[in-house]
Write a structure and sequence with these properties.
By secondary structure, the protein is α/β, with parallel strands linked by helices. It has 16 helices and 19 strands. Strands 1, 2, 3, 4, 5, 16, 17, 18 and 19 form a nine-stranded mixed sheet that branches. An eight-stranded parallel sheet has the order 6-9-10-11-12-13-14-15. β9, α3 and β10 form a beta-alpha-beta unit. α4 runs parallel beside α5 and α5 packs across α9.
């Protein structure tokens, strides 16, 4: 038995000093400081004295959950540089003990084939626990029949795109939402108006100068394209009368569309990402191609005012989760779009730094409380994505997934120390306050001071239906 003692145990509702006892893979008992008599009786009942870890002055969070990753994803004529072995090591190094990756049914495939393809990717090695969403890209009668099969396999969440070559149209979206409502699933939606983007891209590539500029990327994907798609998606979901998730929300205009839907009585969940909370569109304006191309993501980075609106929405409970959309490339891969901005692979790493960045930029700077951070990174994703109460919470009987964070220690983010295979760090040089010292996955120490000390302990998570969140 292991005892992590004298730490401050964090939950969305409260934080308190106490001792946490781990037996095997589970949390067996938790005692508050005031429960010394009960703890003494418990210790007297044990045959052996527990091993003790001193966590005084540290915060104990439930293992963080990232429900938006893309490992070994084929996109833009290349493949993300982080596969499951490297991506899950990066995750566990940064305190993320569970991920949900976006499995994809490509055109001509069945949903089950998409699921099996992603199982093979994960079979190469996973250092944190993992599950899959199923991205539906080829909607037909066969796909419709397979939705229940996906639920039975523990893929209780799905994704649809309103842009890219894997998009579904409005009629298909309506039918997908109807079927998922019937089987009890819920879907996340990538919201951008594909027609508006295509028209703007056509204008920008007509001039050789703007065709090769990274800034054309964000000019072709304005916040209006995101807000319009969110609006349309929400009205379709309203007619179907089903809950919906807006993934990677970037802007205040999109947030306002969600607010209006909630006023109508709709259940809408929202996710944002650390990049939209810490970076702005100014990063696209460098004359050096690779300096700007490393920040090409979709939807793109926005204005400082959008950043501020998102932080306030996080504090007020209007946004339920902060995930990463980890979709990593090397600078060489980013160079594929040097002559045509449309060919720059979209995505950046982030799974490794999320916990420390949100603590430093959010909690330390007074934008959110540590309790709210716990909800956003642990308990809410566990509930929304069908893992609660095994994951996302420090409770007796729950999995012993634990992050020990020193709130006073500082470090600087740099590519030299990162686990991800990406050869750049988007937040290079940022000093963060609040360092993750130890990470436990189901009772075992798996990472220490940003280094993975035990690999390939990850298990497949057969997930349940979503629950309400705080």
């Amino acid at each position: 038995m292991l005892c992590i003692e004298k730490g401050t145990i964090v939950s969305p509702k409260e934080s308190f000093k106490g001792n946490l006892y781990i037996e095997g893979e589970k949390i067996r008992r938790i005692f508050r400081e005031s429960e010394q008599k009960e703890e003494t009786a418990f210790l007297d009942s044990l045959q052996e004295e527990p091993e003790r870890i001193d966590a005084e002055g540290r915060l104990l969070f439930p293992g963080f959950i990232d429900c938006h990753t893309h490992f070994e994803l084929h996109v833009a004529g290349t493949v993300t540089c982080d596969d499951f072995p490297s991506g899950t090591k990066a995750a566990i190094a940064g305190g993320t003990t569970s991920i949900v990756d976006f499995g994809t049914q490509y055109k001509g495939e069945t949903l089950m084939e998409g699921f099996h393809n992603w199982q093979k990717k994960a079979d190469k090695g996973a250092s944190c626990d993992y599950g899959f969403h199923m991205s539906i890209t080829d909607w037909n009668e066969s796909s419709k029949k397979e939705c229940q099969k996906m639920m039975d396999e523990g893929l209780s969440t799905f994704k649809i795109y309103m842009t890219y070559d894997i998009q579904v149209d409005d009629e298909e979206m309506f039918e997908i939402l109807e079927e998922l409502k019937r089987v009890g699933g819920i879907t996340g939606v990538h919201c951008e108006n594909t027609g508006m983007i295509a028209a703007l891209q056509k204008e920008l590539i007509s001039d050789p100068k703007t065709k090769a500029r990274v800034s054309s990327h964000y000019l072709s994907r304005p916040d209006d394209a995101e807000a319009e798609a969110i609006n349309r998606m929400l009205y379709i979901a309203n007619v179907v009368d089903t809950p919906i998730i807006d993934v990677h929300l970037t802007c205040e205009k999109g947030l306002n569309e969600i607010r209006e839907a909630r006023k109508r009585g709709q259940t809408v969940f929202a996710e944002t990402c650390p990049q939209y909370l810490t970076m702005t569109e100014d990063l696209y304006k460098s004359e050096d191609f690779l300096t700007s191309a490393r920040y090409v993501i979709a939807p793109p980075l926005r204005k400082k005012s959008d950043q501020e609106a998102l932080w306030k929405a996080l504090a007020d409970g209007e946004i339920q989760t902060v995930c990463t959309d980890h979709c990593s490339f090397t600078l060489e891969q980013k160079g594929l779009g040097k002559e045509d901005f449309r060919k720059i692979p979209g995505g950046m790493p982030g799974v490794e730094t999320r916990g420390e960045v949100i603590f430093s930029e959010g909690v330390v700077k007074g934008r959110i409380t540590k309790e709210r951070m716990c909800a956003l990174l642990s308990e809410n994703p566990a509930k929304l994505y069908g893992m609660y109460p095994e994951k996302g919470v420090l409770l007796e009987g729950s999995d012993a997934d634990i992050v020990i964070l020193n709130p006073n220690k500082k470090k600087t983010i740099t590519k030299e120390t990162q686990v991800s295979r990406s050869d750049y760090a988007p937040l290079e040089g940022l000093e963060v306050q609040g360092v993750i010292e130890e990470v436990y996955l189901r009772g075992q120490l798996v990472a220490k001071e940003g280094k993975v000390v035990k690999e390939n302990r990850g298990r497949y998570l057969k997930r349940k239906k979503f629950q309400s969140v705080v």
